Amino acid sequence: MVGGGGPQSFFGAPHRRAIVLDNSAELTAGALRSKPDESMAAARELYFTRGYPDWTEMIRSEAELPESQRIDYVTIVTPNDAHFGPAAAAAEVGIGILCEKPLTRTLDEARRLRALVLAAELPFVVAHTYTGYPMVMLAREMVRNGDLGEIRKVETWYPQGWLATRREDEGHKQASWRVDPVKAGASGCGGDIGIHAYEFVRFVAGLSAVRLMARMKSIVPGRALDDDFTVLAELNNGAIATITASQITTGAENDNGFRVIGTSGTLLWSHARFDLLEQSVPDRPVRLYRQGSDYSYVPASIRPYLRLPAGHPEGFHEALANLHRTIEWTIRQSRGEPAPAPFEHPGIADGVAGMAFLEAAVSSASQDAAWVEVPRGG
Ligand SMILES: NC(=O)c1ccc[n+]([C@@H]2O[C@H](COP(=O)([O-])OP(=O)(O)OC[C@H]3O[C@@H](n4cnc5c(N)ncnc54)[C@H](O)[C@@H]3O)[C@@H](O)[C@H]2O)c1
């Protein structure tokens, strides 16, 4: 693991729980903070077998270990400006990568990382956590199966309220770097959560933005980056998409979701009811699919990702654990070890596409919401 150490850090802890959830993996090596002494201390406090002062030293040392002892993949859970460095270093020595979103700070970095990952044919997952929910995976399968007919429209959303006031002035660790363009990149809200909403377009609807117009606002005074993000996009099949995200939706609690609208039906998923997928078909009662390993409608591709029979909640940690399952099973299969077929969770292409989407949105917003092309293929 790179990042995620220290008493106030956020997302390293959910990743640690997700990694060990199935007792099929263990946390061994860590460069968990930016300062060498704190990084070593964090590794001790969190029971890592091998603590390192920084990620350069960790990747170099791990690459020198015999294959049976070295790390199988690295989880990168640092602020956005510290994704590219460790990811590129890992790719150069052939270590698989599960990287936080947004993939990098810039599209140029994302493209350079893609070249390294593809050249080495490495397992790579981008941590779009919500794509690990079985009902989101089911929605993807239903769209691919043609259950909705031709997709005409996609609506995705991600409202939060936690930055409705200047939390950065209170020394709030997560707020401080998220409003700083040097650490976060060219978009605040868009890069932090708009990118999750856009991934629903790619992962669930199987489509990509080709042109878009964006309004990116810094609604709370004094911010250099957007805290509100609204995009209207044309997709590669001619469909239309609205992608909205906000950090100033007072009182909102990560209730992201999507509606995919086709010629023969509509699918609706909301994080507030993550265990349900709603299908609307003309002149029929609304159908609710419910999460649970014993439902016969769960496709074989999703079944190994469910752990409990119907009615037992499997939530956010399980969704994140499912992304770790995907990279773990990819690695095991590549070694000829028995493992279920990994689901197609977001990979390097999605990471680059997300950065291309963000770059186009920033460009459009800076031209008073002019229509701009999204760079092709990222
Ligand atoms: N997928 C999701 O649902 C989700 C949710 C939250 C955060 N994230 C992403 O996770 C990443 C981290 O976010 P966070 O909220 O946990 O931030 P945070 O500020 O709470 O934690 C960042 C951690 O990285 C460490 N760090 C910083 N620079 C480092 C370096 N050079 N080497 C090693 N460690 C370093 C810090 O010490 C800290 O422990 C971000 O990219 C964010 O977008 C994703």
Strand content of the residues, in percent?
15-25%
Biggest pleated-sheet summary: 9 strands, mixed
What is the rounded distance between the termini? 27 Å
The poorly predicted ranges are: none
Q: How many runs of DSSP E, i.e. beta strands?
A: 14
**How many DSSP H or I helices?**
11
Bound molecules: nicotinamide-adenine-dinucleotide
Rounded to the nearest angstrom, the radius of gyration is 20 Å
Strand adjacency order, main sheet = 13-12-11-10-6-9-8-7-14
Describe what you observe in this structure.
The structure is a single chain. With 378 residues, this protein is an alpha/beta fold. The chain contains eleven helices and 14 strands. The strands form three sheets. Strands 13-12-11-10-6-9-8-7-14 form a nine-stranded mixed sheet. Strand 12 and strand 13 form a beta hairpin. The two termini are 27 Å apart. Nicotinamide-adenine-dinucleotide binds next to helix 7.
Which tags fit this structure?
3-stranded parallel beta sheet; binds nicotinamide-adenine-dinucleotide; globular; single chain; alpha/beta
Topology:
Elements: H1 12-20, E1 29-30, H2 36-45, E2 50-51, H3 55-64, E3 73-76, H4 84-92, E4 96-99, H5 107-120, E5 124-126, H6 134-144, E6 151-159, H7 173-178, H8 181-184, H9 189-203, E7 209-217, E8 228-235, E9 240-246, E10 257-262, E11 266-270, E12 276-280, E13 287-290, H10 316-334, H11 348-366, E14 372-373
What's this entry about, in short?
The chain has 378 residues and is α/β, with parallel strands linked by helices. The protein has a 9-stranded mixed beta sheet with strand order 13-12-11-10-6-9-8-7-14. The chain has a 3-stranded parallel beta sheet with strand order 3-4-5, with helices on both faces.
